[in-house]
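Q: What residues go here?
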């Protein structure tokens, strides 16, 4: 029995009820730069015979470039050292699939995620959301993988046509890292955060799944 739909509800279950116990939640916004790593950065596929093309397709290399995204967060402090954070985010990356003697396939990956994180403030500043902190959590990732021989920036592009082949996946992701909030005890403060994200469900390439979406996220934002 597939457990993916139930697992995707865990980030929401993690955050449910927190608002009833938390004091003075802190909202935040960030601009994110996503550096693909692992199989998401580059994957090589072996040659295979294509009945459509009528010949053997040589070895393909599929890769994605630096991506851009944004996040909205609400951090609920539970005590001096611990906060539970709800986050909503979106991002996109462009890439290509290349094989010798074959036309280049342009790629686009986009993802919307809903997540729940634990934030640990060693300095005891969770209520003020200030200083250094560790962060780790899980997320429900709703991904779209687009492939086309044309340009995604074509003015006459028609998303309803067969010009683009799209694959939609709902998967669970996990992340961990650290951050630092700069500023005083009140008002708007500046935040830097670095985290590593990886897909933990439905990434079996032998079963036809896309590789794990792995990247390092550098977030630059503000918290109130």
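A:
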């Amino acid at each position: 029995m597939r457990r993916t739909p139930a697992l995707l509800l865990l980030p929401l279950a993690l955050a449910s009820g927190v608002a009833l116990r938390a004091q003075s939640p802190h909202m935040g916004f960030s601009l994110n730069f996503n550096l693909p790593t692992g199989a998401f950065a580059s994957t090589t596929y072996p040659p295979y015979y294509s009945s459509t093309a009528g010949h053997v397709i040589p070895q393909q290399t599929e890769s994605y470039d630096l991506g851009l995204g944004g996040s909205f967060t609400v951090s609920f402090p539970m005590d001096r050292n611990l906060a539970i954070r709800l986050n909503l985010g979106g991002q996109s990356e462009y890439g290509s699939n290349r094989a010798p003697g074959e036309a280049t396939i342009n790629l686009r990956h986009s993802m919307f995620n809903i997540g729940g994180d634990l934030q640990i403030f060693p300095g005891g500043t969770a209520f003020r959301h200030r200083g250094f902190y560790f962060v780790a959590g899980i997320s429900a990732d709703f991904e779209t993988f687009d492939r086309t021989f044309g340009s995604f920036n074509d003015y006459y592009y028609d998303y309803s046509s067969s010009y683009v082949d799209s694959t939609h996946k709902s998967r669970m992701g996990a992340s961990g890292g650290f951050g630092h909030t700069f500023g005083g005890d009140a008002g708007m403060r500046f935040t830097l955060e670095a985290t590593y994200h990886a897909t933990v469900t439905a990434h079996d390439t032998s079963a036809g799944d896309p590789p794990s979406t792995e990247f390092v996220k550098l977030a630059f934002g503000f918290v109130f």
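A: Context that may help when evaluating the design: The chain has a mean pLDDT of 88. The two ends are 43 Å apart (CA to CA).
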